[in-house]
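Technical annex, item 7. During the second reporting period the consortium partners agreed on a shared format for inverse folding records so that results from different sites could be compared directly. Each record opens with the tokenized structure and is followed by the designed sequence. A conforming record, contributed by the partner at site C, is shown below for reference.
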């Protein structure tokens, strides 16, 4: 019964996505894709007073990818850049199985817990979140605090296109 409810939440966000489109003008735009599934996503945002004032996604992909992006825009809008990075980090930890999923406080986000049963689909569920994190880390983002360019966790992978720090 609970799994059916979660499936309905995912299908609702897929059929009636929230915040789909593009923010124009935007403070950052990030494109990412999952060639294994065919998902393509663009994340755009407008920042104001150190917070995410507007966040949208555009693209095409499977129901899990599009629903996750829709849920993400609702969860991150209005947060400070640091709060958003921490929230994304927590979600990614849950999707990697490193921390247990929370409860009702997650709202619609809880529906994505079922994706853990299908490891090949985790990338679908995290694509938009990784793209948003990349945008939030762009030090050139207006209103971005110094922390915005730093990883939320010491174990975070290097940013795309940038070499990892060399070990001495």
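Designed sequence (site C submission):
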């Amino acid at each position: 019964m609970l799994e059916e409810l979660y499936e309905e939440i995912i299908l609702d966000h897929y059929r009636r996505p929230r915040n789909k489109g593009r923010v124009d003008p935007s403070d950052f735009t990030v494109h990412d894709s999952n060639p294994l599934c065919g998902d393509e996503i663009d994340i755009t945002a407008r920042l104001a007073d150190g917070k995410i004032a507007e966040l949208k996604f555009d693209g095409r992909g499977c129901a899990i990818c599009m629903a996750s992006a829709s849920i993400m825009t609702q969860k991150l809008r209005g947060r400070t850049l640091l709060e958003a990075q921490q929230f994304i980090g927590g979600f990614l930890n849950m999707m990697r199985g490193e921390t247990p999923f929370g409860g009702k406080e997650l709202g619609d986000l809880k529906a994505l817990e079922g994706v853990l049963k299908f490891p090949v689909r985790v990338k679908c569920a995290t694509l938009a979140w990784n793209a948003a994190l990349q945008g939030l880390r762009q030090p050139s983002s207006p209103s971005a605090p110094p922390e915005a360019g730093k990883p939320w966790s010491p174990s975070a992978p290097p940013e795309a296109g940038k070499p990892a720090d060399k070990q001495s």
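The CA atoms of residues 112 and 157 lie 23 Å apart. The longest strand covers residues 39-48. All partners now use this format for quarterly exchanges.
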